[in-house]
Amino acid sequence: GDPTPNSGPPDSPNLLQAQISLNSLSGHLGPEALRLMGLISDHRVIVLVDGGSTHNFVQPQVVTSLRLPCQTISTPLRVMVGNGQYLECVSICEDVLVSIQDHTFTLDLYILPISGANIILGVQWLKTLGPSPSLVSHSARNCSGCPLMSGSCVP
Q1: So what's the pLDDT on residue 38?
Q2: Taking CA 139 as the corner, what is the angle to CA 138 and CA 143, rounded to the nearest 5 degrees?
Q3: Which of 25, 64, 73, 110 has CA atoms 20 to 30 A from the CA of 45?
Q4: Residue 20 has what pLDDT?
Q5: Cβ burial, residue 117 (10 Å; 0-12/13-18/19+)
Q6: Rounded CA gap, 117 and 99, in Å?
Q7: Which has the closest alpha carbon to 81: 20, 10, 123, 15?
């Protein structure tokens, strides 16, 4: 199911809360984001690492074209966009293997109609890297300080 935009605050206490930066949703590269190349089942995907997003998201087209198994989530994820609107996410792809520069991550990806990048990796993913991930401090044009990201930036 496609998420539906709403303008008001969440009206049900049963909804999980999430946030996505407006730049990431619209495909613009904000100062808190890195754009990288990744692989899912040998298919190239554009990955946006975004410290302004709480969760990991994937475009519906990627789910369809790569035939990723997904399921409806029992408690919808209410995603607040940077402009104050909400999108309701009702589907997730669990345990998706995403490779970024010879590192493979097993990710849960919420399906959301994002632009620009195929996948957004948010704080949910950054926390798996350790207690103090410094990825967000690197700009998309200067990734050389981080061993995982060096040489893999997409202009």
Answers
A1: 95
A2: 60
A3: 73
A4: 73
A5: buried
A6: 15
A7: 20
